[in-house]
Design brief:
This is Bifunctional protein FolD. By secondary structure, the protein is an alpha/beta fold. The chain folds into 2 domains: about 80 residues, Leucine Dehydrogenase, chain A, domain 1 (Rossmann fold); about 120 residues, Rossmann fold. It is about 40% helix and about 15% strand. It has 10 helices and 9 strands. The strands form 3 sheets. A 4-stranded parallel β-sheet has the order 5-4-6-7. It has a 3-stranded parallel β-sheet with strand order 2-1-3, sandwiched between helices. The protein has a two-stranded antiparallel ribbon with strand order 8-9. Strand 1, helix 2 and strand 2 form a beta-alpha-beta unit. The longest helix has 20 residues. It is globular, with a radius of gyration of 19 Å. The termini are far apart. Bound molecules: NADP nicotinamide-adenine-dinucleotide phosphate (NAP).
Length: about 290
């Protein structure tokens, strides 16, 4: 048996970012510089790392960026007032509020307050609704990255059976809608699914987003299937693991994403792409 192809999110990201950099250069001739504002509330260490990575991606691509680090004690009113200010600020085209927020702040109220046109995370209910009905919208970054990676395998999505394990609002549900938009036949699995192994084994494309380290082993995978592992689980030894048992699954699968270096880098790249698109749209250039 030949070894499975590894789908490198890192490499695909680099290719996409080169294209973005060229567009940024073109836009600068029209005096437009994409601008991203990130709002971080509290001290969650993982969130601080994610925000630093986003800040760095902005710097590398020549975006304007602002990071607003608020204390964990900030009130909901303070966060909403900042979002309002950023909604009105011309230099900002994308607003991202890093989740999770401290418990006393209502996440939905904050997401709902972000201008639909600047909602580069794609979490605003209007963008989610547009995704459901197939209208133009800013797509959520991780799901958009998943689709991009599948496309880059060169495998035709149309007509394939895709199985998505996990039905969260930020990953599983939007991934399944996007696969359906690409004309796959989609089955969704979740914690109450019966016979999950049998269902997963029918998949030509298997996307896993459950948050259970290494749970999906080779018994879930049809030989040759494309496997996309969204999971990011921190093990006790500090290492990062996906939801897929990479070593066993790659023995039977077709193209497969690793963790780290798979979906993770794509998420930030898609955020950069959304910010570019928002900047063009807000300036009447797209
Ligand atoms: P989540 O909100 O906790 O949702 C997990 C989903 O998996 C739920 O729908 C749950 O089913 C299902 N599930 C849990 N255990 C299961 C099991 N044993 N069998 C079948 N289904 C099961 O998680 P999420 O936010 O979607 O994130 C999923 C994973 O992706 C996490 O590891 C997260 O860190 C990672 N992630 C990575 C990125 C990235 O950039 N790479 C971005 C976002 C998330 P129920 O609905 O029935 O409870």
């Amino acid at each position: 048996m030949t070894a499975a192809t590894i789908i490198s999110g890192k490499q695909i990201s680099e290719e996409i970012r080169k294209g973005i950099a060229l567009e940024v250069e073109q836009l600068s001739k029209q005096n437009v510089r994409p601008g991203l504002a990130v709002v971080l509330v509290g001290d969650d260490p993982a969130s601080h790392v994610y925000v630093r990575n986003k800040e760095k991606a902005c710097q590398d691509l020549g975006y304007y960026s602002e990071v607003h680090r608020l204390s964990a004690e900030s009130s909901q009113e303070e966060v909403l007032a900042l979002v309002d200010k950023l909604n009105a600020q011309d230099s900002i085209h994308g607003i991202l509020v890093q989740l999770p927020l401290p418990k006393h702040i209502h996440e939905k109220a904050v997401i709902d307050a972000i201008s639909v046109k600047k909602d580069v995370d794609g979490f605003h209910p209007v963008n989610v609704g547009n995704l459901v009905i197939g209208d133009d919208s800013l797509l959520p970054c991780t799901p958009a990255g998943v689709i991009e990676m599948i496309k880059r395998t060169g495998i035709e999505i149309a007509g394939k059976h895709a199985v998505v394990i996990g039905r969260s609002n930020i990953v599983g549900k939007p991934v399944s809608l996007l696969l359906q938009r690409e004309n796959a036949t989609v089955t969704m699995c979740h914690s109450r699914t019966a016979n999950m192994v049998e269902i997963a084994r029918q998949a030509d494309i298997l996307v896993v987003a459950i948050g259970r380290a290494n749970m999906i082993d080779a018994s879930y995978v049809k030989p040759g299937a494309v496997v996309i592992d969204v999971g990011m689980n921190r093990l006790e030894n500090g290492k990062l693991a996906g939801d897929v048992d990479f070593e066993s699954v790659k023995q039977v699968s077709g193209p497969i994403t690793p963790v780290p270096g798979g979906v993770g880098p794509m998420t930030i790249t898609m955020l950069m792409q959304n910010t570019l698109l928002a900047a063009k749209r807000l300036n009447g250039l797209a």
